[in-house]
Amino acid sequence: MSDWESCKLFFRSDPIKIIRAKGQYMYDEKGVKYLDCMNNVAHVGHCDDTVVKSCTEQMAVLNTNNRFLHDNLVLCAKRLTATLPDSLAVCYFVNSGSEANDLALRLARAYTKNEDIICLEHAYHGHLSSLINISPYKFEVGKFPKKDWVHVAPIPDVYRGKHRGDASPELGELYSSEVRDLIRDAESQGRKIGAFIAESAPSCGGQIMFPPGYLKSVYKHVREAGGVCIADEVQVGFGRVGTHWWAFQLQDVVPDIITVGKSMGNGHPVSAVVTTKEIAQSFRDIGMEYFNTFGGNPVSCAAALSVMEVVERDGLIAHAKATGDHTISLLNQLKPKHPNIGDVRGQGLFIGVELVEDRETKEPATALANHVITRLKESKILMSSDGPDRNVLKLKPPMVFNKEDANFFVSVLDEILTEIEE
Hints:
Belongs to the class-III pyridoxal-phosphate-dependent aminotransferase family. InterPro entries: Aminotrans_3, Aminotrans_3_PPA_site, PyrdxlP-dep_Trfase, PyrdxlP-dep_Trfase_major, PyrdxlP-dep_Trfase_small. The chain is an alpha/beta fold. It is built from 12 helices and 15 strands. The chain folds into 2 domains: about 1-45 and about 315-420, Alpha-Beta Complex (Aspartate Aminotransferase, domain 1), CATH 3.90.1150; about 50-315, Aspartate Aminotransferase, domain 2. It has helices spanning about 50-60, 70-80, 95-110, 130, 135-140, 170-190, 215-225, 275-285, 300-315, 315-335, 365-380, 405-420; strands at about 20, 25-30, 35, 90-95, 115-120, 150-155, 195-200, 230, 255-260, 270-275, 340-345, 350-355, 380, 385, 390-395. The strands form 3 sheets. Strands 4-10-9-8-7-5-6 form a 7-stranded mixed β-sheet, with helices on both faces. Strands 1-2-3-13 form a 4-stranded mixed β-sheet. A 4-stranded antiparallel β-sheet has the order 11-12-15-14, with helices on one face. α1 (about 50-60) runs antiparallel to α9 (about 300-315), α6 runs parallel beside α7 (about 215-225) and α10 runs parallel beside α12 (about 405-420). The model has no long low-confidence stretch (mean pLDDT about 95).
């Protein structure tokens, strides 16, 4: 055990060995069934028949590196860009969200010729060295010094953040002014902004939904300073928010670069960067060819194509909205009964339940959240917690999670909180 202590083991005191999964359920080696409330990788459901068939059929015919042309590459790019604003027209296929965000930084710097990056408090954008530097979620914990070219803006958390209250355009403007001030401070030191990067709905930061107008105002400040705007959709894309394909659309903005991954292949390692023709041209002009051995290989593209097919065919975006609305309503009904529920927030199947010791002080109930996660597991429900204080229960299940599953989860949560209070 001591040889790999730096690798995280979930449910460390009583780990689970999962041997198969289907839909929103996972099964251990004893055949015990668990409701999966945390796996946003299996986007359209574990082992979805359409995805499995598409991947296995393609694997039986051809899988190779990207030295050769293949229809799947073009078909996948066309289908992906069809869900996006017209200006986002050029795709780069890679293998993971981390690779996608690393490439996004390279694209931004090639285009702007500027090094500096603005990110948000508690952000996480991937495990590569370039991304740890812009992931306060990681470098704050590890006590790594912040680089001079990194500028960290307050996370727009209207419940616990610097500016609090009901989500409103006024709060959106207050938080966006923090980014404006960061830009001015950087410029006063002779620095220039290359990019602003943010998850369109921060997940590791605690399942945060931006106040109205936040990104629109931030994008304006960044572009006026000569930077570009990157929307990290790795955790929240492909319809999870329930009203749009992409969470950035909730803010009525068009990014210069978006990154997608994680759920894109339903568990198969495939991701992408999508950007404008102008930014892609500037990347080409620096003279360094881009090649990715496995990014966009025939099987990866088959997986991604089938995921997008299932999302559309089965109406999973509308399903996420209906199920999410139902779940949030049930959770809000628990709030008057359980004083440890400080906040319920989210949209679609992206939901956070913040647990507190006291609603007035908002002291985070970290130990309680950990206990709830353990008790949920004992009740055959898999969930995790996040946020800077690890006190936010986060619900990011496969998109086939339904109202009956929500009823089960909320009823068990009610029982757990009741037994704690008694």
